[in-house]
Specification:
- Helices cover 31% and strands 30% of the residues.
- It is an alpha+beta fold and 265 residues long.
- The strands form four sheets. It has a five-stranded antiparallel beta sheet with strand order 3-4-5-6-9, with helices on one face. A four-stranded antiparallel beta sheet has the order 11-10-12-13, with helices on one face. Strands 1-2 form a two-stranded antiparallel sheet.
- Strand 12 and strand 13 form a beta hairpin.
Length: 265
């Protein structure tokens, strides 16, 4: 039989054994985590996931905004290139007017601050049998502080219809006796192409490189003569809030050949 005294452990030995077990749990990773440690890890992981989702959302929004701005820049560049090419393709076009109040040759050109009408060989839509199109740029007030630049293109069929599309009536100046052309007003239609929208202001101006003494080089209304029927350049200026810009297009048309479509009836 074993001695009962020898089978019992000393108190010091029990404390030493408990201490060794605690140390073994600390040194051994397989011993596991406490409930507090597990909850803390889950919470930190959740915060990291939320931060990652927020970062992805901000990055996605920034990417979409940058892409939208890039599309606007490309659209504006394409629009400016189109307007430049179309106005540069202005054709020196004259017809023999049968209007008793405006006899003789009539130059197809209306050039005011809010309306520009001319004949061009470049069109975004139409290809008439003559290869010519009546181009109309109109600056219209849609509402208070909301200005648009609209484009209308019509194929040229004959001089009679062309004349009446442009001219409303002709009167005489009581002081000079010279004919005064009243052009057809430009009112925007649903089929017109809106080139620029959301503007606060816009207007055309016309360059005369050889003005008479006392006059300015840029005019908001162009009244051509037989010697100088066309301006040297056309400028479109616009304002949108604090932004502003302009497009200056040189006019290459210098001569005024007779129309090949016959006379207006």
């Amino acid at each position: 039989m074993q001695d009962r005294g020898t089978s019992q452990r000393e108190p010091g030995q029990s404390c030493q054994h408990a201490s060794l077990n605690a140390e073994s749990r600390i040194l051994n990773p397989a011993a596991g985590f406490t409930l507090f440690e597990a909850l803390l890890s889950i919470t930190l992981t959740g915060f990291l996931m939320i931060a990652l989702l927020i970062g992805l959302r901000v990055a996605n929004r920034a990417w979409r905004t940058g892409e939208a701005r890039l599309r606007l820049v490309h659209a504006a560049a394409e629009r400016d290139a189109f307007v430049d090419q179309q106005i540069s393709s202005l054709v020196p076009y004259r017809i023999n007017s049968r209007d008793p109040n405006l006899p003789g040759m009539f130059t197809v050109l209306q050039a005011s601050a809010t309306c520009l009408r001319f004949i061009s060989t470049y069109s975004s839509v139409y290809r008439s049998r003559t290869g010519l199109a009546l181009v109309e740029y109109g600056i219209v007030d849609v509402s208070s502080g909301n200005v648009q630049v609209a484009l209308r293109e019509t194929p040229v069929a004959d001089n009679d219809s062309l004349y009446h599309k442009i001219v409303l009536s002709v009167t005489n100046d009581p002081d000079t006796g010279l004919p005064v052309i009243n052009y057809q007003p430009f009112s925007v239609k649903a089929s017109d192409l809106r080139l620029m929208t959301g503007l606060t202001n816009a207007w055309f101006a016309y360059l005369d490189l050889h003005p008479k003494k006392g006059t300015v080089a840029w005019r908001t209304d162009w009244h051509g003569s037989n010697e100088k029927p066309y301006p040297d350049a056309i400028r479109l200026r616009w304002e949108r809030g604090n932004q502003s810009g302009e497009e200056v297009i040189p006019v290459r048309a210098k001569l005024t050949p007779l129309s090949t479509l016959g006379h207006a009836q």
